[in-house]
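Thread: quick sanity check before group meeting

JM: Hey all, I'm pulling together slides for Thursday and realized we never actually wrote out the predicted structure for the chain we discussed last week. Dropping the sequence here so it's in one place. If anyone has concerns about the input, flag it before I start.
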Amino acid sequence: MEYKMKLTPEQKDLLSGAQGATKAKVMETLVRYGELFGADEMVPVTGRYNHLVTSFGLKALGPVYGLMEQLIAEGAVSEQKFTVDPRPMDKNVPANFLQNLVFRKFMYTRQDYYEAQLESLGLIGSDAFTCTCYMKEVGNTPGCGEVLSWSESSAVVYANSVLGARCNRNSGIIDLMGSIVGFVPSFGLLKDEGRRASWVVEIKTTKKPEAQLLGSAIGMKVMEDVPYIKGLDKWLGSELDDAAKSYLKDFGAATASNGAVGLYHVENLTPEAVRYGDSLVLDGAKTYVIDDAELQRVYDSYPVVWKNPDAEPKLCFMGCPHMSLEQLISWTERIERSLAECGNKKVVIPTVFTAAPAVLEAFGKTEYAARLSAAGVITSYICPLMYMNNPLCGKMPVITSSNKLRTYTTARYYTDDEILSMITKGVRK
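JM (edit): ok, ran it. Output follows.
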């Protein structure tokens, strides 16, 4: 069979079945997929580890399990070890009898089977379940310029933007296939031209913009395009320290979920913007100015989908994507200060902070873990989105400062400051 793209002898051997019929089918799928997007070649995956999103153990995804079982049976396992999306359940997260029944008997009935498949395919370890695999505590942090076969929108946009790695937004199965054969089709964000910006976003706010709100505004405006952001370094500085990385983690997740952004550049801060400056901006790029009024307009545009808009919140989720160690520590201090101001000892709304298992382990070794627990906050490794997809949980009035969680579920968005006031003082906007 003839293909349009240029293939190396090794790639042709894979297609011809030199490493088995199953790997040949995997390679053929990737080549055909790449040609649909105009790829002219297949390039090696150079990242040490992969990151996958596949199914969360949902009963309805039988075909996915069947495909994975076939790959395992034929020995077509990942050339790389990989991390994977967070687990959907944790007994420590509040849920009543009926909610738990739905989780275990109707939704995530194949979670154990799914995890066993992942182990056979190349999972790094039993604690490799997180959407923030790039945290230093987790250890899946690719270098600048490395080619990846990653899935999960917030991880992909972080890898491309903050780390300077190269990865397209593909499906979980396509990215698993790329990891199995060690090659991915070269198009889009893998190309220099695909990484240039078609939007210039000018930040002209009078205070540091809320990460999730700013990301939401940009995502809804530019959609899948690449924005070059000016003026944000005024608030974040010119060093990618832990605080800046935490901000960009949440910002990027909002651009990717409220739009379809796979890469952004922040002037004087992100690697490619530092190296190339505004030469990254394409001729004829559009301009989007964001000031205080524009952020307020975006905030006011969010629909309230609660059955009773005036209902008292029953649960608060923070950590979609998973929180960093820096965020866990800073939020502990903020909660303590706010509780002291109003004379309360514990949060007045059940509150769950989610983070990667390895991050929670590191946090547990600090003095802050006991202090956060004493304030009544629960820590967990789950995916809040998967919790909220339970129809009985979705009926609850849940609050969050995650625009990703707001977009995909019935959770209601508030800013960080509003969340802090609500969970410590019971004071609403």
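AS: nice. The first strand starts at residue 42 and ends at 44. The mean pLDDT is 95.
JM: adding both to the slides.
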